[in-house]
Amino acid sequence: xxxxxxxxxxxxxxxxxxxxxxxxxxxxxxxxxxxxxxxxxxxxxxxxxxxxxxxxxxxxxxxxxxxxxxxxxxxxxxxxxxxxxxxxxxxxxxxxxxxxxxxxxxxxxxxxxxxxxxxxxxxxxxxxxxxxxxxxxxxxxxxxxxxxxxxxxxxxxxxxxxxxxxxxxxxxxxxxxxxxxxxxxxxxxxxxxxxxxxxxxxxxxxxxxxxxxxxxxxxxxxxxxxxxxxxxxxxxxxxxxxxxxxxxxxxxxxxxxxxxxxxxxxxxxxxxxxxxxxx
Length: 279
Known about the structure:
Mean pLDDT: 80
Distance between the termini: 48 Å
Order of helices and strands: HHHHHHHHH
């Protein structure tokens, strides 16, 4: 823990995120290679998966760019660092990078969810009731994705010279907390309804033990994603009442990486039977 109460410093953040991201990318490349070499084309779930990977890499880059500016904001707010002459400019950059990071990481997470949805749709062939539930889940997830990607702009709806007036205030802090809880609740909610599909599949369809174990492993990783959301929300406060943005971004990064890792597992025939009937 740092002097101002941050639970993770920049160096720890970058090392941990870099290692997990590298592992996720290696698996993502392996998944893409296996799918293309097997089917000689890409499918709907693959398109969402590739987009999720691109958004994750971009989101990690903007996260790393935001961290130094956020550190300055935290130190100045805690009184351990004198305000620099260009404080307004640094705060402006911090807000812009955080907004970009929120859109990119949330976009990556929901692209993984849509990739799972289209992958599960393949397994739901000839299951009428489950296909109806699939469509309900798909329709519900769309507005949730839009809200999670866009709510960060409500925290600080200003740039440039107005940032000190609009974004550095008690009301801005309250908006930030409200937005965090909204995003966490919607993220967990969509995880739960997404996880319900393989659970119903396990109970409703006769499948062999190997596929059951494969679905079970994905369920475990989905549970981990829910846990990261709870951790992100429960530890977001600093000693002086500010939001621990580094903590929030770190667990958002971890969730996005684990989601990508979980999706990569769908490429292996040892978990699921291959089929050329795709959407």
